[in-house]
UniProtKB/TrEMBL annotation, chain A:
It comes from Euplotes crassus. Gene3D superfamilies: RNA polymerase, RBP11-like subunit. Residues 31-103 form the DNA-directed RNA polymerase RBP11-like dimerisation domain. Its main location: nucleus. This is DNA-directed RNA polymerase RBP11-like dimerisation domain-containing protein. It is found in: Nucleus. GO terms for molecular function: DNA-directed RNA polymerase activity; protein dimerization activity. It comes from the Eukaryota. InterPro entries: RBP11, RBP11-like, RBP11-like_dimer, Rpo11-like. It holds the Pfam family RNA_pol_L_2. GO terms for cellular component: RNA polymerase II, core complex.
From TrEMBL, chain B:
This is DNA-directed RNA polymerases I and III subunit RPAC1. CDD domains: RNAP_I_II_AC40 (cd07032). It is found in: Nucleus. Belongs to the archaeal Rpo3/eukaryotic RPB3 RNA polymerase subunit family. One of its GO terms (molecular function) is DNA-directed RNA polymerase activity. InterPro entries: DNA-dir_RNA_pol_insert, DNA-dir_RNA_pol_RpoA/D/Rpb3, RBP11-like, RNAP_Rpo3/Rpb3/RPAC1, RNAPI/III_AC40, RNApol_insert_sf, Rpo3/RPB3_RNA_Pol_subunit. It comes from Euplotes crassus. One of its GO terms (cellular component) is RNA polymerase III complex.
């Protein structure tokens, strides 16, 4: 009855941005990113990636409501870099890691198949 | 004591009840070179249906993101629209339509587009099947004698098409599809899925339209039947066990993790097969003699394909999709900056 339409999983209303950037009013070098059309896959992945950065003091995410298809990611840095910069670095790192992982995986599969023959 | 502390960074300890798992996210930056060095992938087994592989050196978030993508965000083709012209079988229309939706279709989804909201079905976003089948009485004396009808096990011998299988679905090429898929005809993954049973005079006629979609909309689009990971078990003996105790422990383990040397000493033969049943540490006397642990950054993935993709393709597609997602976030964040300036 209250289930959101399936199309809401894939498309945003025209006036909504994919990622909103909200500065924290109470702390310096802290920000909140509201990411639309994302879930725990994105939230947890980014959180872990951010925490590995030594300039990040805090990072966490939450999904405010199970029927609303968005997550909030909070980032607090030590001031050497801005939260947005940290988030971008996190994305960059993940990207490189995925490429490395794919390469390694394909190599191993090839090797395994070679052994079989 | 400090030894246990050090060890708890890399291991989760299995207790009689529960697990000691200390979350340690190292706040020091893990440089990318280190990631490449630490990352280790090993294929344990691979066949047409499933793949088991080890990934060492990633964090739980990474592993879980992959698993979630395998299940719900790799696109496939599945029957979405059914035009039912005739259905006099025992299965109600809507149940049959739902049943058709769950039939896995063997076609490369990468060659198709997702159908837009206001788009019609065309050769780029749709695969069509027709199913027209009628059950009739065979022309044999046994079949003509209606008294034989009573026993359902006679159905196949007496009637034509008493069972409807996926092999009865006929692919109808749209536009240039016939040319495009000449070498890989589109068909259901399995030809022997029972769709319905019929008796003489009953008929099913329908048009089945497949569309591209992802598992988070409906599970029929999920390319995996199961996709899971677990932490690699690490089992060690803290002190030497031999003699009767060794025999006792060996027979306790249902997975045969332990074995006995010729000298009568117990040793860990194969820790991978451990299912964490805890049978070996149930008895108080063994609790302190065995170290039952899990390696925290060593994941054993098992991905079982439904049949639309090869199992190894599911993994590479999953990584590709995640990578594209991350790229999209980065670009959006870059775009945000330009907006502000």
């Amino acid at each position: 009855m209250n289930t959101p339409a399936i199309s809401e999983l894939f498309s945003l209303p025209p006036d909504v941005k994919k990622i909103e950037h909200v500065d924290d009013t109470k702390a310096k070098h802290a920000a909140k990113f509201v990411m639309h059309l994302e879930d725990h896959t994105a939230g947890n992945l980014l959180r872990y990636s951010l925490l590995r950065n030594e300039n990040v003091k805090f990072s966490g995410y939450r999904r405010p409501h199970p029927l609303e298809n968005k997550i909030e990611l909070k980032v607090h840095t030590n001031g050497k870099i801005s939260p947005k910069e940290a988030a971008k670095q996190a994305c960059d790192n993940l990207c490189t890691e995925f490429i490395k992982m794919k390469e390694a995986f394909l190599m191993q599969v090839k090797e395994f198949k070679g052994e079989g023959k | 004591m400090s030894n246990i502390f050090e060890e708890s960074k890399t291991r989760a300890f299995i207790k009689n009840e529960g697990v000691d798992y200390n979350t340690t996210v190292t706040t020091q930056e893990l440089p990318l070179e280190d990631f490449a060095e630490n990352l280790q992938i090993d294929v344990i087994s691979l066949n047409d249906e499933d793949i088991t592989f080890d990934v060492k050196g990633i964090d739980p978030a990474f592993a879980n993101a992959l698993r979630r993508i395998f299940i719900s965000e790799i696109p496939t083709m599945a029957i979405e629209k059914v035009n039912m012209w005739q259905n006099t079988s025992v299965i109600p229309d809507e149940v049959l339509a739902h049943r058709m939706g769950l039939v896995p279709i063997k076609v490369d989804p990468r060659l198709f587009e997702v159908k837009g909201k206001n788009e019609d079905h065309n050769e780029n976003n749709c695969v069509q099947f027709n199913l027209h089948i009628k059950c009739t009485r065979k022309n044999t004396p046994e079949a003509q004698n209606r008294e034989n009808d009573i026993l359902p096990e006679n159905d196949e011998a007496l009637f034509n098409h008493a069972s409807v299988y996926t092999s009865d679905m006929k692919w109808v090429p749209i536009g240039t599809q016939e040319e495009k898929f000449k070498n890989t005809p589109i068909r259901p993954v399995y030809e022997d899925i029972l769709l319905s049973k019929m008796r003489p005079g009953q008929e099913i006629e329908m048009e089945l339209m497949c569309e591209k979609g992802v598992g988070k909309t409906h599970a029929k689009w999920s390319p995996v039947s199961t996709a899971y990971y677990r932490l690699l078990p690490d089992i060690a003996l803290k002190e030497e066990i031999s003699g009767e105790e060794a025999q006792e422990l060996k027979s306790k383990c249902p997975m045969n993790v332990f074995d006995i040397e010729d000298t009568g000493k117990l040793f860990v033969k194969n820790s991978r097969v451990c299912t964490t049943c805890r049978e070996c540490i149930r008895d108080e006397k063994f609790v302190d003699k065995i170290k039952l642990a899990k390696v925290k950054n060593h994941f054993e993935f098992t991905v079982e394909s439904v049949g639309m993709y090869k199992p190894e393709e599911i993994v590479t597609e999953g990584i590709k999709i995640l990578k594209e997602k991350v790229k999209c976030w980065k670009n959006t964040m870059k775009g945000m900056e330009e907006d502000e300036e």
